[in-house]
Design brief:
Blueprint: H1 2-14, H2 16-20, E1 47-50, H3 53-58, H4 64-71, E2 75-78, E3 85-88, E4 97-101, E5 104-105, E6 127-131, H5 135-138, E7 145-149, E8 158-168, E9 172-182, E10 186-197, E11 202-204, E12 213-215, E13 221-235, E14 238-252, E15 264-280, E16 283-299, E17 304-322, E18 326-341, E19 348-364, E20 367-378, E21 386-398, E22 401-414, H6 418-422, E23 434-449, E24 453-474, E25 480-503, E26 506-524, E27 541-551, E28 554-563, E29 566-567, E30 575-576, E31 579-592, E32 595-604, E33 623-632
Parallel strand pairs: 4-7
Antiparallel strand pairs: 1-6, 2-3, 4-5, 6-7, 8-9, 8-33, 9-10, 10-13, 11-12, 13-14, 14-15, 15-16, 16-17, 17-18, 18-19, 19-20, 20-21, 21-22, 22-23, 23-24, 24-25, 25-26, 26-27, 27-28, 28-31, 29-30, 31-32, 32-33
Length: about 625
């Protein structure tokens, strides 16, 4: 039944263009330029998507995990509402995805991944997602994909102010404030947010006979954070930027059904960055110097574990652009880690370096090419060079129709984490880096009617092979240790559909996405393994559907998320059922001279779906949220 509902809604949104063509009122659509998106300049042939501003304004209190789960067909595995939230791109695991902030990797070197539940949606500028291997551009860990975050830019002149207060079901409260000033030479922005949640929702206890109803009593959380962004035009050709980002999260970790409670986790993350940009006859020089401090304290009835990691990063880039035909960027990235962890025998330090060259060439108006290469240098390791070659070719254009053929071949790698190598009694210093190759090809179709309609459809097929996949597994004595256990093949199909149209005063937006993902072991180097089986927590089918209706000062948004069946073991002996989540939001904008007040009412999981993303970790049923946002100008 869930599958039929999802397919019906997908067909419904496809029918919207026919309705939209009845009116040709002028509306300025976003420009259609492949070269125009910064994330795509050196990623020809790759699949890049963005989180639209309308969604971010409506769901500003959500985490980055919520946003990506709702608007992209990637899969997130969450240990309940207050636990770790990790991502899976194209059948890979969380440590095979990188998260970059203003171009620098913010992943923890101890764990090799980011907890998306602690990354707030507020405080960012653009949010882009690149699917597939991107090791040549972004370095270690960019095997399955990359999430690209940037600080906001403040356009216009004068002061701006935003205040938001939100209250919702299960004791959820959110407060947010941003103030900014912009002049000809100076841009300054300060932001702060506070999120409190009791998370005392009712759920069905699947671990008990008869599935009795219970109330969650150990999932409360408190999060707050600050952002600071300064851009100063020192001279006509020189600009300096100072960016700061601090997040704090104090959480009761939601226990599995039937388990005793008591675990808690405290996270403190400080990220500071200075950026210098200079234009000259040699092109654009970009120097970034950053300091990150990540603190984690996990406690339960018998354990108190502390991890404190400092990261120093320096990245220099030189970009030379020749007209509109080609651009060459060369650079160096240096990293220094200092990690103190109760699981290590003393403080661990490590140096990493990489040199890279990114080349973009457009020989004609219809053909775009990119060629990238990165060489990494890591203590005690010797990663192979990582290349990437991609193209976009517009091979057909007639009236309102444009057709593109795209493709790329790219390499990737991942250096073992500090925990993999240095955990006392279990770490394995003999681990090899993971090495991967990815190929993808696709078709993209654009249908444009003046400034009133844009319909974009894309289909992509991909194949990925990852060797020396690192996995923690028990040895013959029962001790769990990380080993290069297997070779994994992931392949699949991705479909997407986006619409923007107008009918008089009515603006319609819609997007749909579907992925079929097969991810399985093809070789096992130690033990018997589970060759030929779908990897655990990788759904074969995943889809999203979003619609937006904007009429004068009213907005209606809907989001549908379909997740197929997932196995909870690599032996395929147990599974989680498929589910559909539907969220609906209605907002009204009130104008007071130059100021605006936005009143929004939202319902999450409006169909009261019972679902799990991680075995025996309950998720909330239907909830409601009321939000007030005041904006100047």
């Amino acid at each position: 039944m869930a599958n039929r509902i999802f397919l019906f809604l997908m067909l419904a949104i496809v029918a919207l263009p026919a309705l939209a063509q009845q009116d040709t009122a002028a509306y300025q659509l976003r420009s259609v330029e492949v070269f125009g998106k910064p994330a795509e300049v050196y990623a020809a042939g790759s699949r890049v998507t963005t989180i639209d501003s309308a969604y971010r304004q409506t769901y500003n209190s959500s985490s980055l995990a919520d946003a990506l789960q709702a608007r992209t067909p990637v899969y997130f595995k969450s240990y309940g509402v207050s636990g770790l939230s990790s991502v899976s791109f194209r059948g890979t695991n969380a440590s095979q995805t990188v998260v970059l902030w203003n171009g620098l990797n913010i992943g923890l070197p101890t764990l090799g991944q980011s907890d998306f539940s602690t990354l707030p949606l507020s405080g960012f500028g653009d949010i882009a997602v690149q699917s597939g291997s991107a090791g040549a551009a972004y370095g270690s860990g960019a095997i399955g994909g990359a999430v690209l975050l940037s600080s906001p830019n403040y356009n216009g002149k004068g002061f701006g102010l935003e205040l938001q207060q939100e209250a919702g079901s299960f004791g959820r409260y959110f407060s947010n404030g941003n103030i900014n000033y912009s002049s000809g030479k100076l841009q300054l922005g300060l932001g702060a947010y506070l999120r409190n949640a009791e998370n005392d929702f009712t759920y069905k206890d699947l671990s008990r006979f008869g599935k009795p109803k219970r109330t969650e009593e150990h999932a409360a959380q408190k999060q707050y954070g600050f952002t600071q962004n300064l851009n100063w035009q020192l001279a006509a050709n020189t600009k300096i930027g100072l960016h700061g980002w601090y997040t704090f999260a104090d959480r009761e970790l939601q226990p599995a059904m039937g388990s005793a409670s008591g675990a808690e986790q405290l996270d403190k993350n400080l990220r500071l960055m200075t950026q210098l940009e200079h234009e000259s006859d040699w092109g654009k020089t970009d120097v970034k110097l950053a300091y990150f401090k990540d603190f984690l304290n996990y406690t339960n009835s018998s354990l108190n574990s502390v991890a404190d990691v400092q990261t120093y990063q320096l990245q220099t880039e030189q970009t030379y652009t020749k007209g509109e035909n080609w651009s060459l960027r060369g650079g160096v990235n240096l990293q220094h880690f200092i990690a103190e962890n109760d699981g290590y025998a003393g403080t661990k330090q490590e140096n990493r370096a990489a040199v890279f060259a990114l080349f973009r060439y457009d020989p004609t108006e219809t053909l775009d090419l990119s060629l990238n290469l990165r060489q990494a240098f890591v203590e005690d390791y010797n990663p192979a060079p990582t290349p990437a070659l991609g193209f976009n070719w517009k091979f057909y254009q007639h009236e309102q129709h444009q057709l593109f053929l795209k493709g790329n071949v790219s390499g990737s790698y991942r250096v073992p984490t500090l925990n993999d190598r240095f955990w006392t009694g279990a770490g394995n210093p003999d681990l090899k880096p993971e090495q991967g190759w990815s190929e993808e090809a696709g078709l993209r179709h654009l249908f444009i009617v003046g400034n009133t309609l844009l319909l974009e459809t894309e289909a992509t097929a991909y194949h990925m092979l990852i060797d020396d996949w690192i996995q923690w597994a028990p040895n013959p004595t029962g001790l769990w240790r990380p080993v290069n256990l297997q070779k994994v093949r992931a392949m699949g199909i991705e479909l997407s559909h986006q619409l923007t149209a107008t009918i008089g005063n009515l603006k319609l937006t819609g997007s749909a996405g579907y992925t079929y993902t097969s991810s399985e072991q093809v070789e096992v180097y130690e033990g018997q393994g589970d060759k030929g089986n779908q990897l655990m927590y990788v759904p074969l089918h995943k889809g999203v559907l979003a619609t937006g209706i904007n009429y004068k000062n009213w907005q209606l948004h809907t989001d549908l998320n379909y997740t197929g069946e997932r196995y909870t073991t690599n032996s395929e002996t147990s599974h989680l059922d498929s589910f559909i989540l539907v969220n609906v939001a209605l907002s009204k904008q009130l104008q007071f001279r130059k100021s605006r007040l936005v009143v929004a009412f939202r319902s999450d999981n409006i169909t009261n779906e019972v679902y799990l993303t991680m075995a025996y970790h309950a998720m909330p049923l239907r909830g409601y949220t009321l939000s007030l946002r005041f904006l100047i100008p």
